[in-house]
Amino acid sequence: MTFARLAARTGFALLIAAIAFFALFPFYYAIVSSFRTGTELFVPRLWPERLDLTNYVQIFTQGVFGLNLLNSIVVAAVVVVVSLFLGLTAAYALARVRFRGRGPIMIVILSVSMFPQIAVLSGLFELVRFLGLYDRLPGLMLANLILTLPFTVWVLTTFMRELPKELEEAAIADGATPGQIARLVFLPLLVPAMVPTGLIAFILAWNEFLFAFTLTLSAEKRTVPVAIALLSGASKQELPWGPIMAASVVVTVPIVVLVLVFQRKIVAGLTAGALKG
Question: Model-level pTM?
């Protein structure tokens, strides 16, 4: 191995290590801080002096953080299921059914995802209140679909367009209906695309703050981002940074677990089509 190649590999390894450190250190320090209380939080140390679970006990025993966590799980799960179902059916229509206006419809779908949340917040608030869904979980689910559905439809349509037409023609020759073609032929082939798409939709719904803050009023209907933002200490003199760090760790762990569980399918979905030819 030449010196130039060794230097290049060493530089690349150092760059990867720097990126990993920059990405992981805030989460590591949040874990360390979650085991500290009182003035210990203001002592800059890179490891916990002891494993004090006071902050974790506090967030689950004071207030309704556990219920907020359940609300986030329910909202995110329903949003993912509805997004993938509607995305699959819309992708089949947009990618396989010939009709006038397919191009403009795709442009409109993509344009919806470009609007900032604050631009649609007032109209969405009026719609949710008109439907009687204010301060209810279905209202949050409807709001989050605005964020996840355009992205899901666009990605699944792009992947479905790449599937061979011969598969659909063979299924039609065997007497399959459009619903059977979408469910039995395309659905198994779209799993590598649906897993990363569903995971991104889950993360968007899990971390969404503005809609959840605006469309909920009672503490029992909040999701975890709003609950963390509104955390306070047991007394006015007590700083809430320890419980906030503990709550942040609890909220981040499910995302990390999902990424680790589905990492192979995520990579397969991101690299699908890269070796076509």
Answer: 0.83
Q: Which of 213, 192, 201 is nearest to 255 (CA)?
A: 201
The Cα 159–Cα 52 span in angstroms is 48
Would you tell me how many other CB atoms lie within 10 Å of the CB of residue 179?
10
Could you tell me the pLDDT band of residue 235, with boundaries at 50, 70 and 90?
very low
Rounded Cα distance, 239 and 19, in Å: 32
User: Position 8: which residue type?
Assistant: A
CA distance 107 to 102: 9
Residue 187 to residues 50, 89, 165, 224, Cα–Cα distance (Å)? 50, 10, 15, 32
| Closest to 212 in 3D by CA, of 140, 128, 146 | 140
Instruction: Please say if the pLDDT value at position 180 is more than 60.
Output: yes
Whole-number Å distance between alpha carbons of 270 and 248? 28
pLDDT tens figures, 94-122: 887 777 877 788 888 878 778 888 888 88
Residue length of the chain = 277
Token couple for 223: 């999701």
Q: How many CB atoms lie within 10 A of CB 162?
A: 12
Is residue 163 classed as helix, strand or coil in its secondary structure?
Answer: coil
Assigned CATH class of 64-233: mainly alpha
Looking up tokens 């690299």, which residue turns up?
A: 271
